[in-house]
From TrEMBL, chain A:
Name of this protein: Tellurium resistance protein (TerY-like)
Gene3D superfamilies: von Willebrand factor, type A domain (3.40.50.410)
Source taxonomy: Bacteria, Pseudomonadati, Bacteroidota, Flavobacteriia, Flavobacteriales
InterPro entries: Tellurite-R_TerY, VWF_A, vWFA_dom_sf
Organism annotation: Flavobacterium frigoris (strain PS1)
Domain VWFA, chain residue ranges per copy: 5-181
TrEMBL record, chain B:
Keywords: Kinase, Transferase
Gene3D superfamilies associated with the record: Transferase(Phosphotransferase) domain 1
Classification of source organism: Bacteria, Pseudomonadati, Bacteroidota, Flavobacteriia, Flavobacteriales
Annotated protein name in UniProt: Kinase protein
The UniProt record lists the keyword RNA-binding: no
Domain Protein kinase residues, every copy: 18-350
PROSITE patterns: PROTEIN_KINASE_DOM (PS50011)
Entry's Gene Ontology molecular function annotations: ATP binding; protein kinase activity
Length: 211, 503
């Protein structure tokens, strides 16, 4: 009934060219398989994948997990990192896709947003305009992932308190990270503690969380 | 990959081993490792436990485990119904429990019909509770060979119900019963309650979790904003188990949630969800208040036909279960003391299996249905009408000499249906304590030369009261409309009255 919409906003700028983009594709398909073998995820999860480099592309519009087909994600050999434009696109999509509650219709769960980048925004002004809009959209969680030494944790922290830093964008690190992402997504149906508030599960030990 | 040896904190002479491959299975709060021989697992808590938590685990393994072992049906409970922790270990300051490995029947042999993605994975109850995974059009449907038929889920529910009955009889509460904490196998009709390390002992160990969404009792949700020390705060206990158990039963039999309907209580999703499962919870099939009826158009197409409460109302589970569902989801929903006990559920489930008929449609997915008490019965799942006459046996007990009263227990006859001691004599209760000898049929029903007959195999004093004739072992008696049979002259022996339906 209620859907859990999950948006992945992925950096496909020039610096991702080569091994990193391969690793990202590999990790994403691992994550989709993990989710597709989870009964709870199959019950409610809808996924969208959006990439940003010079352009913003909606690789997969918001799609029910069972019908979700992961295409190969590619990136140009060089070019800017238009993170701000990417955020702007997500904002438009969330406003359009996510069902709000009405007196006669149950609303969707609060959407989740995962932003993955290996650099810093080239359109920093637009980025800073869009971060408060993201915050006002009432996401269930926004997780920023900064991969590699070029990624700027501080700028991502302007977007969200949940920033995970990956030392590199190699295959095994990304796999670990996306495993954690699927655990975060699956979190909803675990036993709830007697305390309050939903917390993110601890990230795997190999990566650093910046709080 | 390394093998690690850990010591019991209950008995320092005992040690266990596990293989650390760096990628344990991650549960909610524990990392789970296999022993080298794969006979048990070592489940280690990721957080350090406090004194009370340690004490609780030791109590579970040292006090409650032997209590089950040494009582009646101990093997049934420990091998079938529970995966009870057997010991507590410590390793580098972290505490873990030793749990016997799950029986192989609780792992998917095939999994999805069209992919091997979940082959070999645990048969968590969620796969069998939801409607999607059994919808033939769903791309990731669970293989038909894994699903069993409708009757399978009655036996599954009976096993779960007995588990809860046993815990309550020992003064324990499960506190987090959900489809995630049970493994079920509809093929062998088994169910097993797992994750038993969080048990609540009233007055001694309080609940640490409030439960799993969808199974948390309304009073727990509506008071969860209060501090734990507040006297109005309700935490899981025996009575909240008696909410979670029927939610599970309802879901396994009807593949939808009893409280998830169309009524909107708040425009904010989180608040709406909290209200609709908590303070404002309302049965979707409430007979008079229809405000929470599911809105099919807003639901997922994969959830049909089960989501359709008009096509498959809860009354398809028969009169005994309907009565209990009314009690728990209407009277007892906000009034915990009114909730039926686990034993009442066990009895109702078992009595309902006596009302089952085989569907004549060989391709019917459910294969069995509950007699709907009409003169023209048909299968509610595929619509196939019953062909031929249908004997209905109503059971009576002797209230005082010459006065017989109805038991509100009925046995439907079908070809090759058996008659058991628990039908013959009211002093024999059909439960986990039944001996192998008591499971031997006393007779069987069959359709022979165009007549329904009961063949007497072991009944020493069967008598056709209507025709005043003894029916010795090895002979048979015809079932005709209005006929009365005395099944046994012994104390507790019953009389059955035959009605012919679908004439």
């Amino acid at each position: 009934m209620r859907r859990l919409p999950v948006y992945f906003l992925l950096d496909t700028s020039g610096s991702m060219y080569g091994e990193p983009i391969q690793a990202l594709n590999n990790a994403l398909s691992g994550m989709v398989n993990t989710l597709r073998s989870d009964a709870q995820a199959l019950d409610s999860l809808w996924i969208s994948i959006i990439t940003f480099d010079r352009e913003v592309k909606e690789i997969v519009p918001l799609t029910e997990l069972v019908s979700f087909q992961l295409p190969e994600i590619t990136c140009p050999q060089s070019g800017p990192t238009n993170t701000g434009a990417g955020l702007d696109f997500v904002i438009q999509k969330v406003k359009k896709d996510v069902l709000k509650g009405s007196p006669t219709q149950k609303g969707d769960w609060k959407p989740l947003l995962f932003v993955f980048t290996d650099g810093k925004p080239s359109d920093i002004q637009l980025y800073r305009e869009k971060t408060p809009e993201i915050k006002n959209l009432n996401f269930g969680a926004v997780v920023g992932c900064a991969a590699g030494h070029m990624a700027n944790d501080e700028i991502l922290k302007e977007l969200t308190d949940n920033v995970v830093h990956l030392d590199s964008a190699d295959s095994s690190t990304l796999k670990q990270f996306f495993k954690w992402v699927s655990e975060t997504i699956e979190q909803g149906n675990k036993s709830q503690g007697t305390g309050e508030g939903v917390t993110l599960p601890p990230p795997p030990s190999e990566i650093t969380v910046v709080i | 990959m390394k093998t690690i040896t850990v010591k019991s904190i209950n008995d320092s002479s005992k040690s266990y081993q596990y293989v650390d491959n760096g990628e344990p299975m991650r549960g909610g709060v524990k990392d789970v490792f296999f022993s080298p021989d794969k006979k048990y697992v070592v489940a280690i808590f990721r957080d350090k436990l406090d004194f009370n938590q340690k004490e609780r685990l030791q109590r579970i393994t040292n006090h409650y485990l032997p209590q089950i072992q040494n009582k009646e049906a101990g093997d049934y409970y420990l091998n079938e119904v529970f995966r009870w922790p057997t010991d507590v270990i410590e390793h580098n300051g972290f505490i873990g429990v030793i749990v016997p490995i799950y029986n192989s029947k609780f792992f998917f042999k095939k999994g999805y019909e069209t992919s091997d993605l979940i082959q070999g994975k645990e048969k968590n109850g969620k796969w069998f509770a939801g409607a999607k995974f059994r919808n033939p059009q769903f791309p990731l449907k669970v293989a038909k060979s894994e699903l069993g038929d409708w009757l399978s889920y009655f036996q599954v529910c009976v096993n779960l119900t007995r588990g809860v009955k046993k815990m309550h009889a020992m003064g324990l509460a499960h506190s987090d019963l959900s489809y995630n904490n049970v493994l079920i196998d509809p093929v062998e009709k088994s169910a097993c309650i797992i994750d038993l390390d969080g048990l609540v002992v009233p007055g001694m160990f309080a609940a640490e979790v409030i439960g799993t969404a969808e199974f948390i009792a309304p009073e727990v949700l509506s008071s969860k904003h209060l501090n734990k020390t507040d006297s109005n705060r309700k935490l899981p206990n025996r009575l909240t188990d008696l909410h979670a158990l029927p939610v599970l039963i309802y879901m396994f039999l009807l593949h939808r949630h009893p409280l998830k309907g169309g009524k909107v209580h708040d425009l904010d999703t989180e608040k709406d969800d909290l209200l609709s499962m908590g303070e404002k919870a309302m049965f979707i099939e409430h007979p008079t208040d229809k405000t929470n009826r599911p809105k099919l158009a807003q639901g997922s197409k994969w959830d049909l036909p089960w989501a359709d409460i008009v096509k498959l109302p809860y009354s398809v589970t028969g009169p005994y279960l309907k009565t209990l569902f009314d009690k728990v989801f209407i009277d007892g929903l906000h009034n915990p003391m009114q909730r039926p006990t686990a034993e009442e559920w066990e009895i109702a489930l078992l009595k309902t299996t006596d009302l089952m008929q085989k569907c004549h449609n060989i391709s019917c997915e459910q294969k069995w249905y509950v007699f709907d008490n009409t003169n023209t019965p048909k299968c509610p799942f595929c619509g196939t009408a019953h062909k031929g006459t249908l004997p209905v046996l109503d059971l009576y007990y002797q209230f005082k000499p010459t006065v017989w009263k109805p038991e509100n227990h009925r046995l439907m006859v079908y070809k090759d249906q058996y008659l058991f001691q628990w039908h013959v004599n009211r002093n024999i209760t059909r439960n986990e304590k039944i001996t192998a000898e008591q499971k031997v049929p006393m007779g069987y029903f069959t359709f022979h030369n165009n007549k329904w007959v009961l063949v007497n195999q072991k009944l020493t004093s069967l008598k056709d009261v209507t025709e005043d004739r003894e029916i010795p072992i090895g002979s048979m008696v015809e079932l005709t409309d209005g006929k009365k049979l005395l099944l046994s002259k012994e104390d507790g022996g019953r009389v059955v009255v035959i009605t012919m339906a679908n004439k």
